[in-house]
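Provenance

Sequences were taken from public entries as deposited. Structures were produced by running a predictor on each sequence independently, with no templates supplied. The record for CAP-associated domain-containing protein from Tetragenococcus koreensis is shown for reference.
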Amino acid sequence: MKKRGLLFAGIFFLFLVILYMQPVWFPRNSTEDETTEQAQNNPPATNLSYEPIQTAGFANWIGQDLNEFEESYGQPEESMRSGFSFTVNRYAVDGEFLEVNTEDHVIKSIKYLGGKDDEIEPFHFGMTMDELAKITMIYPNFTIEHQDASVDFELEEDDMNYRPLIAFDNGSFAIFFFDQTHNESQLYAVDYLDSETLLKLAPYTVANDEAPYYEQEEDADWEKINQFKEQQTIDLIQLLREKNEVPTFSIDTNLQIAGKQILSSFDQNKEDILTTERLQALQRIEQGHPGSFVLNDTEMTDLLEELEVPSVSGHLEQPVYDPSFSVLSWYSTPVLYDQLIRSDETSLGVAFSKENVLVLWKESEYQTEESESN
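Predicted structure for CAP-associated domain-containing protein:
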């Protein structure tokens, strides 16, 4: 027993010597220590990458000269400066919608709502989200490099379901607009655009303030531009109703005039309509921060009551640089879709003031009297 005890004590002593002398005999590399420590302290980076697909359809025209495009599609029926550096070119296509935005005759975006699938291949109108997912993965996060800065943005749930973003290998993008009319939403329009236009429109949540933004042109004829944008908005809303086999809205001149008065009243009396927090949010947008500002139901009710406009509902949003893009977005938004496609007899009025828009819907007098009698 005594020999065993001495043997155990000897082995234990030898183990202690090896344990405590190891750092002396085998010193660790300080670089390895720092690397290991950093790996433990730094969380894994978030993957914001996305995989572009092969360029096809209208995506081939992004960045190209407008004159070449018009050799294939003819001259526009109307062209108008937007007041924000780009020109809007509208083309006459029976039962369809084709609009091209350019800067210095270079194509920046193409919006298409129609029935010719070869223009949007490998996609097709009426396709579902499941069918889209078989062609390309739907990414929730994107990082775009712009003028030595990285801009991160994220698609929220509604964006993923109704306004997904696809990237092409020529550096262009496409926003796919899915409707609300079926049990399973279907593709009805596509907007092809370059990265700068995408960042300036800011249709998705931007994670930083590095994004570029549109600035007003100093020599813009705003009266003429506002009239053009009002008609541009009305025409697309009416076309969407026709495609859904719903009677078009009647256009009420008095409602148009009232809309301009309401926009002016809101601009002059924001402090009376908005809470301090909401006013600060609006001021951030006005200072060029990415995003948009929309009056909520309570604010809109207060604004309409102030001007004593009966039986009227509305949507006030700013900034709206590209009205057609905004209408397509509204049509893919459940609440606004119900207003845009409502089947009752309703008058429509649209008012623009530079980048601010107000859309008004007014029930017919017959509907109002029937509602009151009930």
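Residues 28-47, 366-374 have pLDDT under 50 and may be disordered.
DSSP finds 14 helices and 15 strands in the chain.
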